[in-house]
Amino acid sequence: MDKHKEIEIRLENCHLLNLSKEVVQMVETSPELLNTVYKEVSEKLGMDAAISILGALLGLRRGEMTALRWENIDFQKKTVTICENRVQSTKGVIHKDPKSEAGKRTVMIGEKALDALRQVKAIYDEACNDPWFHASGYVLFKENGDPYRPDCITQLWSRFAERSELPYIRLHDLRHTNATLLIANGVSARVVQHRLGHADVSTTLQRYVHVQPAMDEEAADTIDAAIFA
After folding, report:
1. 11, 42, 115, 226: which has the highest count of C-beta atoms within 10 A?
2. Is residue 44 part of a domain?
3. Which pLDDT tens digit goes with each residue over 70-110?
4. Residue 228 domain-assigned?
């Protein structure tokens, strides 16, 4: 198998589709389901893995995902810097600053995410040795090295979820769940606000953090203990 075909198979290039916008209620995903997703993508690292990591473990918006370059990831310091946003316009895909100054941020990356991203980087570095490959520097890249359109990774994620027989999960639901799980596990709302790039903590709490039954039960137990202990 030639290298071009091998990279094409590994990255599973997605066709550019005209997708209509749909309003769908946010779907809560569990830690167990996200663990299943991680195991699925770890078996065949490529864009499925990179999208899952950037969405679930880092909570990035899709425009931030598609704008991210390898130079924005510091593997030694274990950080990622978000400083651009790729958006679709009437003139095509353009680069813009994040939604607010708070959107320009540097956040830490966990070991699981780092390990997966290192392996995706190895695929990229190997492909750079071939003359047909466009070394664009993007973390999410097609088999020829060009960056993905934002709507394209949405479709790529949907096909992965369907192929893996996962419950219906939108790409943006990974960002929702990232915030909810951080709050549920005791991370300060201010820290979550910073990691998601929100200008105001109220946005984090009102729009992205959803009360899970276990959180509500813990609140009930806490007030009992505070009054009757």
Report:
1. 11
2. yes
3. 999 999 999 999 999 998 888 888 888 887 888 899 999 99
4. no
CATH, residue 156: 1.10.443.10
Burial class (CB in 10 A: 0-12, 13-18, 19+), 97: exposed
**Which residue range is the domain that position 91 belongs to?**
3-12+31-168
pTM above 0.90, yes or no: no
